[in-house]
Structure prediction request, 628 residues.
Amino acid sequence: MFSHMENVVKDVRIIQLENIVDLQRARIDAFFLERQDDIKLFQANLIVQKNLPIFLKHSGQTKNRLYSNAKKELEAQLEAVRSSYGYLDVMLVDINGKIVLTANPKHNNNENGTYLANIEPDAFEGGRHQTYFSGIFRSGNGFGMLCTAPLFSSSHDFLGELVFEIDASHIFDFVHTTTGLGNTGETFIGIPRGNEVLFISPLHPNHNKLIKFDTLTKNNIALPMQSVLLINKDGSGESIDYLGEKVIAAWRKIPSVGWGIVAKIDSVEAIAPIAKIKKMSVVAELFILLFYVVALFIFSQSIITPIHTLQKGMEIVGSGRLDYKVGTTANDEIGQLSRAFDRMSENLQSVTASRDDLNKEVRERKQAEAQVRKLNSELEMRVIERTAKLEESNKELEAFSYSVSHDLRAPLRHIQGFVEMLNKSSGNLLDDKGRRYLFIIGNVANKMGILIDDLLMFSRMGRAEINMATLDLEKLIHTLIYEMHLDIAGRNVEWKIASSLPLITCDPSMIRLVITNLISNALKFTKHCEHAIIEIGNIADEKGEPIFFVKDNGVGFDMQYVGKLFGVFQRLHRDEEFEGTGVGLANVRRIINRHGGKTWAEGVLNQGATIFFTLPNNKEKGESNETT
Prediction:
């Protein structure tokens, strides 16, 4: 009984920790994605592309007018980014890795002319070809980290790198919040650096210090962080923390920077309510046992003493002492017999009284057992109520996401309308740069509109009621291909549709959206193939249940990123290569999960990809006449 109660409490704790770690991971991921967006905006800055080559060409020529003007323009751009987005510093580095310009006036004398490798060894090489985030280091009275990215001229020549110095205290704020985790609970981050890891934790005795992975594996500690950083595996459950204590934890990988994040609470504290109830139960049982022993002793004494008295009187009477008064003052044999019967009557009354005590003890024991059962029932009700509140919170969060996305549509339509009006009324008055800016605003607004529509659809799929019916999957696929024939006009696409697709029990409108997304993805990622091949069919698992798949011979993907494939806004390709918002496959997984099925993917880079899904309670073709 107590084992079952402990398992229920642990399950609730795991759900709570998973929600906390997922929320913190999303906040940190969003923080670094915002930094990447800042980098992209600066890389596309035409003023920087124009003036940086001039500044570098005439570097050090302080009296040169071109050099002075270029430096002034660049300093204005660096300071605007630093003050607008709250960076500690914004720097420019030449092709040799030397800092040539800083936005923070406090750093002008200390860092100008210094090589970036002296501040962070891997920062320059890490940012030559992509956006790179360094580890955390001490900066003044606090902590900082570097974000580096390459800068190119308008002719795509490598000019150097852009460096953002980020205030790492924002990262600390994410993990120092322990609301709802009790006295031993915490959320902490692990930052890998080669064969070492830096723990960002307020409770760790070596917080903000590097610890070798060999030390963790040798001592068999920090198992959740080892799982994330060494084998790239998310999870949750019972484990061992960095102090060797048994904990309940949830752990995740932060995809944007490759860090690990763990939320945990000591197992002892997690199941403390159950331990308290168990202790109360043991005390109650000991009290009942003691009461039973005392009652038994009293009961035995009430029987043995009268028997000894009667035995002694019978022995005296048997010895010939007829005047011995056993129960009365009579000296004749009838008096002796009367007194003997009187004693027997008294003994019977004593036995009856003892039985009353025993019955009373049984009643009290039953009452104690009923009280224990009542406490168990109340605990289970509390667990059910807390689980219901957790589900209600998830629904409120989803409704909030839907409301925010819906409310964004009105200002977005205003932006699009004013851009169109400005283009019509004053487009001929703008120069090429102004028209380009106007085109970028309109394009970004349209893209945001598509993203909001996808968000609304994603939210709606989580709240919409499922209306089950029987669907002919093969007919649906042929219908969708026919509807898309205008979109693929002029392309060489070979369709392989299995004729053995069964009838399935599902919500037809939701499954139509699933198939539409999967076919659209297959068409999108094969658009560069001279001969595109798209195969749709099913196979049987070990239980004979069908597994449906959509397979293509397109660009495919690297299986190390398969965990990002079904996440919201998780994309493996740039917008310039393939359009999209990163919501389609997330919608597919949500719909299939609501039907009780599963989704997964397999792929090989530049050789194609296959998306699999299952649906329970489906039927073989011909078993039902009622189809949709």
Q: What stands out?
A: The CA atoms of residues 143 and 169 lie 7 Å apart. The chain has four domains: 45-171, 173-270, 284-394, 465-613. The two ends are 48 Å apart (CA to CA).
